[in-house]
């Protein structure tokens, strides 16, 4: 397939359309504005519907409603906008309604900065809303990965009857790169997807109210609520098969850099540079950050490894907490951090690695 040059946000939207997304509701916020702008033009061309809601809260509940009706649906926002959508996302998780959303994250907390950051890691992987629900969270480091992950996310959402999050950042969202777009799902394929949802979707047929939790999410007796939580826990455990990570030159590494998203892309170039200088450096990149690739850290040779270096655009560090669970105290963990809209520099990572070697 021919490669085309696309900005990250627009590529995410086009990938969603090609995956069969036919409803999008959202609200403007930098740096994700190109996603709703693209959908506003593109969805009418394929018989879909775009709505700019009056707020983030209105938008997520529109998506909840469209998805409950069996339509592949999506929303997007950035950091504080995602926080406003958290109740609706939690309702979708409680109701077991599949949906996809993207966070093109920016600096914080609060309104913060409009520049890129990775300060939403805890929100994405630990507390996206009330009640302890979990989601698959995919973290691209290139525009091509953002395309591929978005396309696949709709299949994950339908398979699990659960929301799926694309956790990107302002760099991935606004940079332009060549991508190969996936095939457009045909009208027949999209119709088949909707047909398969008829047994549970809200399409006007008579319902078994005793077994349809999405009618009134959370309005269950305690025994039914616990049973549903147990089913959800079993679902989350099943995601072990979906864990993805890149393990780059880890086998003989004396320093292992670990990161995700745009920071990992920068870190990988550092590995190549320092390897040419004779320094044995490797990289573990989390591709799924939920579920987290803890087992990748078992592949480090701790008899050789001086330290693991966590690289992330967050102060205080957040990703490092999962890294600590993977390393299990088998070597020191150092950090190389920036935040608030400052982008990680290759020079800062090189300096941090060389300091470890000097020790």
UniProtKB/TrEMBL annotation:
Keywords: Oxidoreductase. Residues 253-347 form the Pyruvate:ferredoxin oxidoreductase core domain. CDD domains: TPP_PYR_PFOR_IOR-alpha_like. Residues 14-238 form the Pyruvate flavodoxin/ferredoxin oxidoreductase pyrimidine binding domain. SUPFAM superfamilies: Thiamin diphosphate-binding fold (THDP-binding), TK C-terminal domain-like. It comes from the Bacteria. InterPro entries: 2-oxoacid_oxidoreductase, PFOR_II, Pyrv_Fd/Flavodoxin_OxRdtase_N, THDP-binding, Transketo_C/PFOR_II. This is 3-methyl-2-oxobutanoate dehydrogenase subunit VorB. It comes from Brotonthovivens ammoniilytica. The gene is vorB.
